[in-house]
Specification:
mainly alpha; Helix Hairpins; 2 domains; J_dom_sf; Co-chaperone protein HscB homolog
Length: about 160
């Protein structure tokens, strides 16, 4: 059973986060190991395994980047442990510009401005990713995921620098 089936949801990029959370809580109550405390060892073990699967599924589906990656995995394109380098010269130039910008940041205001700029770029790219997934443009979506992963690393670097 895949993560979407577990939550009785369509395998789609665009999900209602509140609905997902409500379904998660309902399943969590049903599958929680404490409900099987008086059961056999096998029942207890199964309850722990189901709860772990539920938690993993929830963490995957609530995060747009992980959800997109999971959808592509369901379509036969597994990006989880890949080491593919993007061959997009425009994006590679943007990476270099971001690296230079981060190296030159001197104060909190500059870091905050960079974080805002990065958030706008990430939102735009995530919107593209949604369109690509909906159109089943899997290779394009995979490249967008790779770009978003890089942007997420930049965001973490900026947050560390702000501390």
């Amino acid at each position: 059973m895949n993560h979407f089936e577990l939550f009785d949801l369509p395998a789609a990029f665009n999900l209602d986060a509140a609905d997902l959370q409500q379904r998660y809580r309902k399943l969590q109550q049903t599958l929680h190991p404490d409900r099987f405390a008086n059961g056999s060892q096998r029942d207890k073990l199964l309850a722990v395994q189901r709860t772990a699967q539920l938690n993993d599924a929830y963490q995957t589906l609530r995060n747009p980047l992980l959800r997109a990656e999971y959808i592509l995995q369901l379509r036969g394109l597994d990006l989880a442990h890949e080491q593919t380098t993007l061959q997009d010269p425009e994006f590679l130039m943007a990476q270099m510009e971001w690296r230079e910008r981060i190296a030159e940041l001197n104060d909190w205001e500059e870091i905050d401005a960079a974080l805002r700029d990065l958030a706008v770029e990430s939102r735009d790219l995530q919107s593209e990713l949604e369109q690509q997934i909906n159109a089943e443009q899997n290779e394009a979506a995979a490249n967008s995921i790779r770009k978003l992963k890089f942007m997420l690393k930049l965001e973490h670097e900026l947050e560390e620098k702000s501390e």
